[in-house]
Amino acid sequence: MKKTAIALCLLAVPSLAMAQDDRGAYLGFSKVATVNDDCSDCDTSGTGFEAGFYFNKIVGIEAKFADTEFDDDSSVDAEFKYFGANIGHTFNTSWVRFYGKAGAVSVKMKDSYWNESETDESLALGVGVTFTPFAHQSGVYFKIESLAAEVFDDSIGYSQITIGYQF
Q1: By its UniProt entry, which Gene3D superfamilies does this protein fall under (predicted)?
Q2: Interval 99-123: pLDDT, tens
Q3: Which percentage of the chain shows pLDDT scores above 90?
């Protein structure tokens, strides 16, 4: 609830300064879903948070955290942590940015029924697109992205839809 209140405050307050086209920090809140290619009952959904910084038009870094719950078993949930590079370009538009990403992901599975947990780390690769609908008149953005990784000897796909603000 606290995260939702912060997001609404960020979006409701008029922009104090124009967003930088080339660089700047950003924060976003996400709806997250994962798909496990090797286990049809292991799909999850939940919410996430991201923070990052664009150094220029092409390179940025970001961190993500997501808390998800198994769709078929509410006693099992997964925490996803990601840190990596975001490399893309606007291709001479002021409202859309396509990018690729590479980084590290850590997944912690927790079973509250059996009181057990395990963690695994892996390389993660992904693609995405960021839409800035007001052409940098405001820092509001929407993002659609997908990551792939292999954790716990399974191939997983991580997708998110994000709304955020670039400062």
Answers
A1: 2.40.160.20
A2: 999 999 999 988 878 888 899 999 9
A3: 53
pLDDT tens sequence across 34-45? 998 777 777 889
In this structure, the number of other CB atoms found within 10 A of the CB of residue 86 comes to 24
Q: pTM (2 decimals)?
A: 0.80
